[in-house]
């Protein structure tokens, strides 16, 4: 029962952590009525919680493997009590920045669940499980919608203090229902970092999450005030629209994980970044509220699905270093939410519009699309290369003129010819002279007509020894039907 409780418990922990994480951005329009700050300072106040929320994710993943999710969640929520209270009595910009910095712990707890929960499920379900857990970012929507409503009736200071009670409840919930016997992994941090930092896929996944989750965080922080200032919406309406954006992204996160469990993850990411490219381009033209909504919803859909897919990919490629790899990728996603609001605000103060910022997002998304396409075909080639190297069957590939392009280790073992001796030669170097010209003419006639030949054939090894093989030859054609390559696969059947 205790193990079954971990997914709902840890998901609710993330809900609470994210609710606390975005207190300032959700209530800033109320706070600025009492604490006078500029637009640039307001951007810093909303962005600062993202700093610690991002950077702490790296050690959080490692510490979860060391001490377990129960301990990490309890300590995180205990520590959060202090900045929440500090913000509730703030009366200056400095107070907001200091308190906001430590609110970042609420965002950092994300790394705890994605490291802990896969221990309880088979790897075929990791995408969906991490997607369910990631749906805990609905906490940002709850705060974005509910906090302004409560603040409108009781004031922002009282609203912030309510979160202290919520944190207290979940400290107790983790104490009683958290798994005390979670499997621990004690691998030195530096050793884990050294084992992953040279792998380019770690940094590519970090880039992808920088865009998908970063956009989610950035829009969560940026939308409430933008909708009030730019379109003249009231605070509650802006909060409701922001909550809708968050809810859609959150709902689609487990959908993205589910899709990644069943289909090719990289193909799904191609659609995600194509959508980001078009949507950001649309937003760069500062459209009406209707078209702006379409652009934002497209970002929400792509972000939700993309977030789910990426945390299916990370444990697939980094099974033994999941804690540190999850932490690094999650940290980059958090930082993806830190920079855009600051950049957008700075650009707006310089140019009077946000076009350049959204255009930059469009171009980064386009570059990511190209990278994902490259990764997809690179993985297919890598898989083909592994098959070529590890199969016990001899394999030979020639061009359409019959010149040998490549052979595999099994070919060398069966024939005695090295790759260097073989490449550039003609397959007739193996000829045993036991077959007539008519035999070979029929072989090529069938290859030309059907693109396929299979049968027994005698060949000769480098040492002059004859051997009988079962040979299959396929003609590999391009889209126009022209033969590009011939691939031969054979096994020795002399004893049979």
List the helices and strands and how they pair.
Elements: H1 6-21, H2 23-31, H3 39-55, H4 57-67, H5 69-88, H6 93-103, H7 105-108, H8 110-116, H9 126-134, H10 138-154, H11 156-177, H12 189-196, H13 200-231, H14 235-262, H15 265-283, H16 289-317, H17 322-351, H18 355-390, E1 394-399, E2 404-407, H19 409-415, H20 419-422, H21 437-450, E3 452-460, E4 466-477, E5 483-492
Antiparallel strand pairs: 1-2, 1-5, 3-4, 4-5
How would you characterize the overall build of this protein?
This protein folds into two domains: 382 residues, MFS general substrate transporter like domains (Growth Hormone, Chain: A), CATH 1.20.1250.20; 102 residues, Beta-Lactamase, CATH 3.30.450.20. A five-stranded antiparallel sheet has the order 2-1-5-4-3. It is built from 21 helices and five strands. It is elongated, with a radius of gyration of 29 Å. The protein is α+β, with helices and mostly antiparallel strands and 496 residues long. Its main location: membrane. One of its GO terms (molecular function) is nitrate transmembrane transporter activity. Pfam families: MFS_1, PAS_9. It is a multi-pass membrane protein.
């Amino acid at each position: 029962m205790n193990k079954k409780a971990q997914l709902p418990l840890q998901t609710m922990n993330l809900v609470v952590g994210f609710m606390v994480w975005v207190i300032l951005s959700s209530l800033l329009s109320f706070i600025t009525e009492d604490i006078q700050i500029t637009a640039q300072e307001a951007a810093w106040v909303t962005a600062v919680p993202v700093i610690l929320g991002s950077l702490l994710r790296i050690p959080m993943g490692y510490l979860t493997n060391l001490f377990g999710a129960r301990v990490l969640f309890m300590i995180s929520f205990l520590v959060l009590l202090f900045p929440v209270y500090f913000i509730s009595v703030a009366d200056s910009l400095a107070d907001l920045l200091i308190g906001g910095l430590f609110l970042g712990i609420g965002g950092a707890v994300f790394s705890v669940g994605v490291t802990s929960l896969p221990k309880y499920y088979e790897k075929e379900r990791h995408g969906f499980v991490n997607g369910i857990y990631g749906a805990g970012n609905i906490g940002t929507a709850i705060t974005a919608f509910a906090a302004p409503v409560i603040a409108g009736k009781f004031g922002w200071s009282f609203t912030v203090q309510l979160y202290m009670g919520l944190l207290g409840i979940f400290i107790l919930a983790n104490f009683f229902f958290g798994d005390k016997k979670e499997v621990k992994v004690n691998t030195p941090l530096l050793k884990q970092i050294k084992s992953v930092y040279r792998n380019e896929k770690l940094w590519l996944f970090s880039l992808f999450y920088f865009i998908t989750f970063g956009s989610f965080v950035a829009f969560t922080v940026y939308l409430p005030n933008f909708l009030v200032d730019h379109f003249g919406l009231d605070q509650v309406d802006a909060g409701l629209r922001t909550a809708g954006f968050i809810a859609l992204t959150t709902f689609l996160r487990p959908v993205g994980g589910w899709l990644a469990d069943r289909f090719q993850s990289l193909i799904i990411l191609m659609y995600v970044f194509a959508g980001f490219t078009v949507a950001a381009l649309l937003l760069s033209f500062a459209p009406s509220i209707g078209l702006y909504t379409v652009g934002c919803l497209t970002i929400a859909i792509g972000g939700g699905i993309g977030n789910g897919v990426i945390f299916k990919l990370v444990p697939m490629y980094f099974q033994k270093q999941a804690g540190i790899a999850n932490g690094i990728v999650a940290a980059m996603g958090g930082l993806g939410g830190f920079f855009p609001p600051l950049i957008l605000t700075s650009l707006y103060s310089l140019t009077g519009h946000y076009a350049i910022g959204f255009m930059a997002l469009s171009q980064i998304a386009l570059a990511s699309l190209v990278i994902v396409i490259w990764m997809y075909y690179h993985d297919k080639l890598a898989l083909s290369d592994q098959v070529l190297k590890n199969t016990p069957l001899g394999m030979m590939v020639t061009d359409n003129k019959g010149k040998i392009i490549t052979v595999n280790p099994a070919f060398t073992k069966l024939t005695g010819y090295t790759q260097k001796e073989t490449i550039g030669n003609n397959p007739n170097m193996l000829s045993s002279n036991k077959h007539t010209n008519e035999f070979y003419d029929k072989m090529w006639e069938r290859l030309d007509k059907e693109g396929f030949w299979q049968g027994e054939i005698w060949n000769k090894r480098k040492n002059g020894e004859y051997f009988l093989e079962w040979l299959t030859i396929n003609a590999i054609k391009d889209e126009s039907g022209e033969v590009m390559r011939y691939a031969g696969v054979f096994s020795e059947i002399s004893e049979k």
